[in-house]
Specification:
Two copies of one chain form a homodimer. With 292 residues, chain A is α/β, with parallel strands linked by helices. Chain A starts with a strand and ends with a helix. Chains A and B meet through strand 9, strand 10 and helix 6 of A and strand 9, strand 10 and helix 6 of B.
Chain lengths: 292, 292
């Protein structure tokens, strides 16, 4: 089965062709310009590469509700020209009968890990990306979570550690998870980017404290069977055991499930930095199945 | 259709008979003693009152996973005699062919509101009870959320307001949501029970601050279409607009959905103090449907 994938980011788009096993055969990327021009490039690509369905994981906020009037729109983004743009509409105009799966980039990545990666076969998983921002997607009882909108779990309020006087980077919430722990917060707090900080720098213990705290709240609310952490900051693999330690300290034994202490409860995406494009393949596969 | 309901609490059990519209025809309650004696009383009741399915919303933690070896157990409760007790097993021994729906009391109450009450027809809703403890259930994309265990969203970590020096009541987490805002925390902090505090007491503004903060995190993670707040503390109806104000302050306009500001986004259970028993009727109805 040939499936199309669009990984729509705020700075670049990646389009590709793969199959129902999450294998990618071809990929092209280009900068995100206007929605018209950018979507036209996607359309041109899929006119050259015939596919049976297209999955589109997109930066947000978006409207993923098929029953909504603004289904398929990027909605309230500050990105110039993109607010209220009907990106799925551009695709369906060009390919009227094509099954199209549309969701947030992080919901897509989460589904990719469920179909092809670290969460294969599970009914409940959470995917976080921790990089220039923090976003999260959730697969709950066999379904991607949308609800009123879609999760925005990077903006959960966290308690600030006593020894941290940093005021937070989020323009909306100051010291929310993203405001405390995304890449730009690390760089502003320590005067060095995450990549430059040595392994024994105190930044990492503080980073693990915030990520662990956020994950404790995630366990208490979404109760995932596995948590997948991707994104630039998580290339620091030494963070994983530290995050697990803090998550369990915050939970303090209240949830008595051995899984929470297991090494494979909090993991790097099995699809690695392909998580985004494979996630969109998963969205395509899901859309194809729903049409059958 | 005659359906049986068991509302299993730590201090009392209520059993009753109702129908698929959430109407209750008969109810009896008795104190929670040993699991053997208590479950026998439930069995005796349903030998007298014939039903087509039984729903059982139970205090927890429990194991609601039908594929687990300990499905139907109350698991790690500190309640004497109840840890690792196979409460559903007692029912299925007595009624081998009876469809039985078993879940947390709060998941049951949530399903009751979805089937019969304030969240009728919605695919995503959260139910919190705020009383002697704080517990929450969630209905997500048309399914009750279990995941690794089940939500324990009363124990989410919250930031303590600057003017609040109270150390928190939760033996596990100190100043988690329950530790800061459940009935016993209110009583210990102010030296008066919630019932005795006058409407203009500063306790209520602080209480709304904590509940609003917790609900902001819930919107960011579970993205419910409606939030239902039951339990003893929520009999204080003046709290609802104050909670909405604080929730929206914490979100600070980040989630642009008009619903969040609507009066009917955060509501009292439509089933009122019947929410528990009607929730168990809903669990019975769901179990009956699953068997068909």
């Amino acid at each position: 089965m040939k499936l199309g994938a669009i990984e729509g980011g705020g700075t670049k788009f990646v389009v590709g062709v793969g199959n129902e096993h999450g294998e990618v055969f071809d990929r092209v990327s280009f900068p995100t310009t206007s929605p018209e021009e950018t979507m036209q490039k996607c359309i041109d690509y899929f006119k050259e590469h015939e596919v049976e369905a297209i999955g589109f994981g997109c930066f947000g906020p978006i409207d993923p509700d098929r029953n909504s009037k603004t289904y398929g729109y990027v909605t309230t983004t500050p990105k110039s020209g993109w607010a209220q743009s009907n990106v799925v509409g551009a695709l369906t105009d060009a390919f009227p009968d094509m099954p199209i799966g549309f969701d947030t980039d992080v919901n897509g990545a989460c589904l990719g890990e469920v179909y092809f990666g670290a969460a294969k076969g599970l009914k409940n998983a959470v995917y976080y990306t921790i990089g220039t921002g923090i976003g999260g997607g959730a697969y709950v009882e066999g379904h991607l979570l949308h609800g009123l909108l879609h999760p925005e779990m990077g903006h959960m309020k966290l308690i600030v550690r006593e020894d941290d006087s940093y005021k937070g980077k989020c323009p909306y919430h100051g010291t929310c998870f993203e405001g405390l722990a995304a890449g730009p917060a690390i760089e502003e707090r320590w005067g060095q980017s995450a990549k430059e900080l040595p392994l024994d720098h105190p930044a990492w213990d503080l980073e693990a404290y915030y990520i662990g705290q956020a994950l404790a709240n995630i366990v208490l609310t979404l109760s995932p069977q596995k948590i997948i952490l991707g994104g630039g900051v998580m290339h620091q693999s030494h963070l994983f055991p530290m995050i697990s330690k803090y998550m369990n300290q915050f939970l303090n034994g209240y949830i008595q499930k051995d899984e929470l202490q297991a090494e494979d409860y909090i993991v790097w995406p099995e699809l690695g930095d392909n998580a985004g494009l494979c996630g969109s393949l998963a969205l395509a596969l899901q859309a194809k199945k729903e049409c059958e």
